[in-house]
């Protein structure tokens, strides 16, 4: 349990007369772990599922009465704040580019049609 570990480490330090090194290393490790998800997303990029992107964009067009088939790249990877392009082909044959922007390291995204 994460809540019990720091209490145990501080009590052990006090009872045995040890230094603060062990509790501080534990704290640094927990903080590094919690921060790592955001860092990985910013540095290495976030892999987005192309099928999910295509489905969400197609649903977005349906809400406005448009029928479109969307095609996104098989390897949709972008850093947080970065973007990936997908293409929508409409029933009349016209094509539009959709720009997907990665919002966070968990893969949340927004999209908008490029003009």
Automatic annotation (TrEMBL):
This is Uncharacterized protein. Keywords: Membrane, Transmembrane, Transmembrane helix. The chain crosses the membrane at residues 20-43.
């Amino acid at each position: 349990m994460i809540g019990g570990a720091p209490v145990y480490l501080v009590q052990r330090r006090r009872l045995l007369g040890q230094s603060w090194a062990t509790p501080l290393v534990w704290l640094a490790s927990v903080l590094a772990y919690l921060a790592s998800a955001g860092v990985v997303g910013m540095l290495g990029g976030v892999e987005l599922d192309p099928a999910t992107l295509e489905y969400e964009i197609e649903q977005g067009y349906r809400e406005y009465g448009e029928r479109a088939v969307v095609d996104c790249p098989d390897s949709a990877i972008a850093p947080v704040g970065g973007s990936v392009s997908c293409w929508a082909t409409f029933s009349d044959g016209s094509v539009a580019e959709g720009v997907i922007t990665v919002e966070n390291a968990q893969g949340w995204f927004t999209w908008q049609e490029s003009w």
